[in-house]
């Protein structure tokens, strides 16, 4: 028959020495229902059931943790199948980790972990979803499956490059090209240039400098032509050589240097003029 035991205050059932002893209390019933909060104070809670059903929407582990070093998560006892599996938050790395460990469920932080695979849907449906190996492999194959494209040179001549074709970078007489693994192309200007017919500076009113290395010099192996007459430049501490309308020197080649003639330009004199002056001044 049903029986109700009611007290006006706390009710304690104690077997032997209680928690400090070795006795136990057995409740032998098909169902035991606790119509209030259940607090278990002890080291271990063991549930021997086939299925654990929890109504709560969240399960809190590591309750009362006040430190910064504890790892916490779900521990799977694999029996004799191998090292036990864990899905846990690694506090030292600020990451969730899936793996196996030889540590028991009471060890935190874990002292060893072997990372294990996780199986996900083959094709991710969102930019933040994890991608499977099959999906990544397919994307790599798609990306590497290059379609035909055209390369056009300075002369507007184009060629079609297709799958499996090599693109050769021909440096020509003045440029060298070198390719290195995995993805480097180095294009260099050669030390000795040939077939150059014009060198022009594209910066307005800027100098074009030809500079020899060390004690070397700049050699002109043929005719040096001044393409047009210049206006008299400003004198400086270096000599400037330029062309102007032929004057008394008979050459039309002038120079100016701030240390010569108080910085006044002068004309180089021709041999004929110099001979005539020598005779005249006898």
What's this model, at a glance?
The protein is built from two helices and eleven strands. With 282 residues, it is mainly beta. A hairpin with a 4-residue loop joins strand 2 and strand 3.
Describe the structure.
With 282 residues, the protein is mainly beta. Helices cover 8% and strands 18% of the residues. It contains two helices and eleven strands. A four-stranded antiparallel beta sheet has the order 1-2-3-4, with no helix packed on it. The longest helix has 12 residues.
Please identify the structural class as seen in this structure.
Answer: mainly beta
Helix content: under 10%
Q: Give Rg in angstroms.
A: 46 Å
Number of helical stretches of at least 4 residues: 2
Count of beta strands: 11
Residue-averaged pLDDT, rounded?
A: 88
Low-confidence stretches: none
Cα distance, first to last residue? 157 Å
Beta fraction of the residues? 15-25%
Strand arrangement, major sheet: 1-2-3-4
Element order: H for helix, E for strand: EEEEHEEEEEEEH
How can the largest sheet be summarized?
A: 4 strands, antiparallel
Shape by Cα distribution: elongated
Which keywords apply here?
single chain; 282 residues; mainly beta; four-stranded antiparallel sheet; three-stranded antiparallel sheet; 11 strands; 8% helix; elongated
